[in-house]
Amino acid sequence: MRVVLLGPPGAGKGTQAERLVNQVDAPHISTGDLFRSHLRDGTPLGLQARKYMDAGELVPDEVTISMVQDRLGAESGDRFILDGFPRNPHQARALDALLTTRGSRLDGVVEFNVPELVLVERLLARGRSDDNVQVIRRRLQVYRRETAALLEYYGDLVVSIDAVGAVADITERVVDALRATHEP
Ligand code: AMP
Fold it and tell me: Which pTM value belongs to this model?
């Protein structure tokens, strides 16, 4: 199982990924979580990422891609649930290249569909430090401007789900979507 969860901030990718690791044997790799943990530990990478995260901008690709390379390289198996990466076509090409060198490839992409009003409500309720109205607006813009292009990039690999509703119901939809993408 090698999948990418794709969707705007607040779509519930992280919540669902946490629930999926209990059902499928694959680690959850969230670039946002990795950056936040670097930030907490005060590493140079964390300090470098901070100003972008605070502003709701993407951390530069070379920093992000090398962090993901390290993280995937530390994995013994060839499975993952990627959450928050890739965020633009350049990152997607880097992921493809990385997988190709390992003789592997993506099984699929699950797109989380949520109306923007619901996203803003959820993000404001979550209350992370980058969850204020101004930064939320910027992150949604960045999603539309850079990340949404991945739908076209991944084409037939994408299975879209309605990600509004009860958490458990959405998990079922994700599992169904994974079944549709997964080729053993
Ligand atoms: P997230 O937890 O996915 O909402 O990410 C929080 C913040 O981390 C984002 O607003 C970006 O500043 C940064 N970030 C996370 N993933 C990426 C990525 N793939 N590329 C660039 N920046 C990222």
Answer: 0.96
